[in-house]
Amino acid sequence: MPQKPQSTAKQLVLVGGGHSHAIVLKQLRAKPIPGLEIILISNTRFAPYSGMLPGHIAGFYSFEECHIDLEKLAKTTGIDFIVDEAVGLDLQKNLVFSTKSQPIKFDFLSVDIGSTPATLSVPGAAEYAISAKPVPQLLEKWKQLLTEILAQPQKHWHLAIVGGGAGGVELALALEAHLGKLIKNPHHLTLHLLHKQDEIMSSHSQWVRRCLTNILTNRGIQLHLNQAVSAIKKTSQKKIISCESGLEVECDEVFWVTQASAPAWLKEAGLTTDERGFILVNDKLQSLSHPQVFAAGDIASIINSPTPKAGVFAVRQGKPLYENLACVLQAKPLKPYQPQKQYLSLIGTGTGEAIASRGNWGFGPSQVLWWWKDWIDRRFMKGF
Ligand SMILES: Cc1cc2nc3c(=O)[nH]c(=O)nc-3n(C[C@H](O)[C@H](O)[C@H](O)COP(=O)(O)OP(=O)(O)OC[C@H]3O[C@@H](n4cnc5c(N)ncnc54)[C@H](O)[C@@H]3O)c2cc1C
Asked: CATH for 118-258?
């Protein structure tokens, strides 16, 4: 990044182009903050929108329809955009370190880098499984797999998904929906979903859990409950998933969609984090340890009001994050943000239907719910 002449403007650096930062940019475009220079650093130009990702894999949406072009968004907002990966911070000198650029100075920093499924504790997972995040790598591997399957449609394909939370279940249904169309003989495709608890989607109501269990089973997806994966090995032909129970599942590919984890460099920089390494913030989305740092989305953990790691919260935090960044830059008092206790999830089945889930309430599967979800998601993307 070329050195700029000294300026008196305050410097705001946004690290990560997640959902909250995309909304911050949209807000900045509508209501610019005077006397401010802003840089967005993202390791990808095209930021995936999580709400449409399973639909993309199921074949409903093109890449363009479910990705935000951050370069274009930054340009129309009038801010600098750098494609680079942040790897460290100096919180005494207020610098961001990245893989390619010179250290970048900031007065205020905001972090919205999402999370990745934890692989480190399971031997072989990082090497042999396809992690659901980062999404660009997931989509690249998915493209390769589609090419291989198209080249050998007569082969019996065995695929596994590890993790039975909402992401894993939606991914399993999306894979089945897409591959079921490619592999005409249903006996040539077996999908396994492994989950360490005795029921899938523990954060949803019993009705939703039962409804989705029935859908998975009816679609021929083999559910392996109470199975904690302990290792993944690779032979010349197959991948072998070993579970603590002794169960072994042989497959061609393994998708890894387990509990979210955070990169180590945030804690190493001295930021106060929770026990899983997520930045602890107050109800103003401001770091507990470093008031010049803000965080939102999956990477933030709000003290006393922890929220699920879901795109819906990252989206909701965008506006309060913008408002508090505007306040701190103008030395005005910050405003508290209260995450909603219950929220509506519309879970796609991959076949043009969706299930609604809110607290103890659930409804579906229904085509109308899918149309509603599709309308909400497309309207969200139109904003960019
Ligand atoms: C398969 C799957 C399906 C899901 N489906 C849904 C769903 O239907 N609905 C829902 O609400 N949630 C869903 N989720 C969860 C959802 O993806 C996350 O909660 C959501 O994306 C979090 O948004 P975010 O803004 O925190 O981060 P993200 O959307 O993950 O964005 C972070 C961005 O920062 C970039 N980045 C990361 N590290 C760096 C770095 N070091 N330097 C620079 N840039 C960086 C990333 O490339 C990314 O673009 C799903 C998750 C998975 C795995």
From this structure: 3.50.50.60
Decide whether any atom of ligand 1 lies within 6 Å of the 112 Cβ. yes
The CATH homologous superfamily to which domain 10-115+262-329 belongs is FAD/NAD(P)-binding domain (3.50.50.60)
Asked if residue 176 has its Cβ within 6 Å of ligand 1, the reply is no
Domains in the chain: boundaries:
10-115+262-329, 118-258, 343-384
**From the CA of 342, how far away is ligand 1's center (Å)?**
21
Ligand 1: atom nearest CA of 54 is 3
Q: Tell me the pTM.
A: 0.96
Residue 293 CA to residue 284 CA, distance in Å, equals 11
Q: Which residue has the tokens 């197959």?
A: 238
Q: Which atom of ligand 1 is nearest to the CA of 52?
A: 8
Q: CA distances (Å), 231 to each of 150, 235, 242, 246, in order?
A: 29, 13, 5, 11
Asked if the domains 10-115+262-329 and 118-258 are classified in one and the same CATH topology, the answer is yes
Per residue in 102-158, pLDDT (tens digit) is 999 999 999 999 999 987 789 999 999 999 999 999 999 999 999 999 999 889 999
pLDDT (mean) for 196-211: 96
Q: What is the pLDDT of residue 120?
A: 73
Distance of CA 133 from the midpoint of ligand 1 (Å): 7
- Of 75, 227, 247, the C-alpha closest to 163 is 227
Q: How many Å lie between the centroid of ligand 1 and the Cα of residue 26? A: 18
